[in-house]
Amino acid sequence: MKKAVYLILSTLTTFTSVAQNIPPDTISNRLWLQSYLFPNEKIHVHTDRSVYAGSDTIWFRAYLVNAVNNQPETTSRYIYSELINPFGNVVSRVKIREDKDGLFYGYLPLEEDIPAGEYIIRAYTRYMTNSGEEYFFRKPIHIVSPFSHSLATTVTFEGKPQQNQIKGLIGLTNTLTKEKIPLENISIYDENGKIEYWTEGKQCRFKISPDKYKHKVIKLEAANFQQFLPVSLPANDYHVDFMPEGGNLPAGVSSTMAFKALNTYGLSEDITGTVKDEAGKEVCSFQTLHAGMGHFSWIPETGKKYYAECISKAGVEKRFELPAAETNINTLKVEESNDDYHINILYSNGIATDETQTLLIHQRGFPLFVQPFRQTHRISIDKKAFSPGIIHLLLLSSQGQIISERQVFVQSEKQVTAHIQTDKETYTQREKVRLDITLQDAEGKPVQGNFSLAVTDNADILPDSSYTIYTSLLLSSDLKGYIEDPGWYFRGDNNVRKEGLDLLMLTQGWRKYNVENALTADYKQPVILPEASQRITGSVKRLVGNKAIANAKIQIHIPKERVLEEIHAREDGKFEFDLFEFPDSTIYNIQATTKKNGRNVLLSLDPETFPEADQIWPVRSHSFQYTANYPYSDLPASVEFLDKTNRRMTYENGIRNIFLEDVVVTARKKGYKTPYESIPSAITIKEEDIKQSSMIELPSFLASRLPGLIILPQGLFQSRELGSSNPKPIQIILNGFPIYDTQTTKMILETLQLRDIEQIDYNKEAAEGLAWFPMTGSAFIAITLKKEAEPYDYIPKNIQQVQLLGHQKPIAFYSPKYETLQQKNNETSDLRTTIYWNPNIQTNRRGKTFVEFYTADGNSPYSVVIEGRTQKGELVRTEKEIIVQGNCIDFSLYKQVGD
Hints:
Blueprint: H1 24-37, E1 41-47, E2 51-53, E3 57-66, E4 78-84, E5 90-97, E6 104-109, E7 117-124, E8 137-144, E9 151-158, E10 166-174, E11 179-181, E12 186-190, E13 193-195, E14 197-200, E15 203-208, E16 217-222, E17 225-230, E18 238-244, E19 255-263, E20 271-277, E21 282-287, E22 293-298, E23 306-312, E24 317-321, E25 330-336, E26 340-347, E27 356-363, E28 366-374, E29 379-382, E30 389-396, E31 402-410, E32 417-422, E33 426-427, E34 432-440, E35 449-457, H2 469-475, H3 495-507, H4 515-519, E36 534-542, E37 553-558, E38 563-568, E39 574-580, E40 587-593, E41 601-605, E42 629-632, H5 639-653, E43 683-686, H6 687-691, H7 698-705, E44 709-712, E45 715-718, E46 728-729, E47 731-734, E48 737-739, H8 742-751, E49 757-763, E50 780-785, E51 799-803, H9 821-824, E52 834-842, E53 848-854, E54 862-870, E55 875-884
Parallel strand pairs: 2-8, 33-55, 47-50
Antiparallel strand pairs: 1-3, 3-6, 4-5, 4-7, 7-8, 9-10, 9-42, 10-11, 10-15, 12-13, 12-16, 14-15, 16-17, 18-19, 19-22, 20-21, 20-23, 23-24, 25-26, 26-29, 27-28, 27-30, 30-31, 32-34, 34-53, 35-52, 35-54, 36-39, 36-41, 37-38, 37-40, 40-51, 43-49, 44-45, 45-46, 47-48, 49-50, 54-55
């Protein structure tokens, strides 16, 4: 993707009328021009694992590629990565900046008390929002509670489908004592807020209306235990969609009908069934092959109606009407042999016409094949003519209208492989491991490429094979909606998986890539350009009359970076400050004045917005089956992983994780509410301390709590320093804005109410104030008001403070070294689940590279997972197991922290 693409003028015109016949060359040129005007980006995110616990860190590498050829895309400078909870709320968001090599990688830290459940990692660029959320990367991960090895949640639902309300019953059991835990002081939430409940013995009952839910999940909070629970609807209801190959069903000719059965949870349902005509005569039978999908062939007759009688594994019988057969209609039929795709046109009752149509084949909007196609002809195309992934076949009328559509997945027979060689056959605890890695193509020739590598402990969690670089960039990114276990289609190369993959092509919705518009020369262009820097935009108007102020002066002060910039608004009063970038948590103070420095103006800033998380995926339960009454387990993780998580938290916090019915135990890292609080010499007065004061006047309160201050009639002053005859005025900062006017400062001190103040920070060292006052420095008192505080008239309307989402500062994954005997005998347990993570590994011209790391404690095998791409855009994924066994150190002799 080149920057010149985005500079194409929107005055492009075409002189070809839609009503005229469109030759193949014109069709090809129109699609090529559309893909040039509006190129698409794709993202795959490789995480170190797929299961985490509170206080863990999600390490990831994001692969941003051009949608057509999977080659690196560097026009967008930032990637946004988000963690979305089961209610569809963004829990955390980071902005990743490309490094010097054009790579994107970062991390998402998890709060210690994050509720257990299935979350979604979502990644996108600003440019991708042109196409909508369905083009974003999405991957489910599971977050478990450290209490899960000792607590079992039982959930029961009673009612009928489509019932306005159903009843629920929740219970907690101590798995060690097998006793029920009383649930009296708990909270239950749905996506809209708290749910009322009543106790019944040691359990609690509640009522919900799941049909009104966007996200069919509830959250339980019981003391220091929190968990999201899927709503298991009371009946095994399901629906079946029937879709003819090519989108049309011509009468009187043998046709393929694909179907897909989904239950009330949005997951696949296995069914069997029979097709019958309107007289009840059986035509054929069918059954699902994989993930609720299957197909059958038949010859529908003109004018007849057909229906399908289906039965699920649970014995639920349902009837569905089938699409009616049509006359005077054509449809595409694709057959696959070992080497070729054979493409035919089916026409109603076997009667062909003389009309010449056009066969268009494109891949992600880029034209690959355009040729006239007569109904009596058959076209065979060598599979080698296509790159791996989904190709889209369209049958067009002579005027360029779409008659029939068909998707085909092209599998790669020649893949690049990463060969991993260990320096030993087996390893012991805390031993050095060297992995020699060689990238080779199918012919054994060396390949240069870049990849990420994760090593994890198999005793804790196995590698995720459901969401890989293959499923993301070759499959999911070109299909609409949720795909159940997309990795299944890439596990092995057998006929069952090939047939299942073709059924997915027949039943899953596809993305248009603006093809329909391009065929009529109605070209689409991106509204949002690739993000190259941060931006602050807004406007300046008069306080009276709301009239724009032309050429207003805007000063941007960035205290932390000691930056002071000045720009000017346009004639319409609007301004834009760009071509800058600073890390996250950077604070920007912005002041607007007229050309003559008049401050009686209104400064408005445009808020920083992010796309809503509207796409809904089914919430998967890891219990053995969905029933109306089931013990819910959040355990895709092993008992070893949960035990290790408990032990790790014990070492870090000095306490064990014990379920407390009345007490919430947390141990959080120190965080700062204000940037001034981080100054080493600063004195901070928090809201709790302010509430306890019996004083009313702010100056008296400050003078009593902050050393070195005196009150003079003209305002609050700092006491005079040694050798100085006069006291020095102290600077007041209100909500991040320095107050320079002495009268306003005096008014603030006289009228500001203590009850409206959230925090006070006092910096008495002038040198420490250089970040906020770059020219002179200053001692200051920073007053932060509560958000709900009533606005004061003396707060300037021409000043605002904003904190943008800046890029994340990269940090390295911690991998301990055991080079000496003292290090190996260190009694602190090594409880890593992710043994090693490296997001940036580059092979040399010979396709070779290596990595080194040390094993942790334990004697279970490790899994090595490599994902990446070559310089030509070929995808790479390899797994290897490392054997770790035996104990070189007896850690049972050491006393554990907290014992």
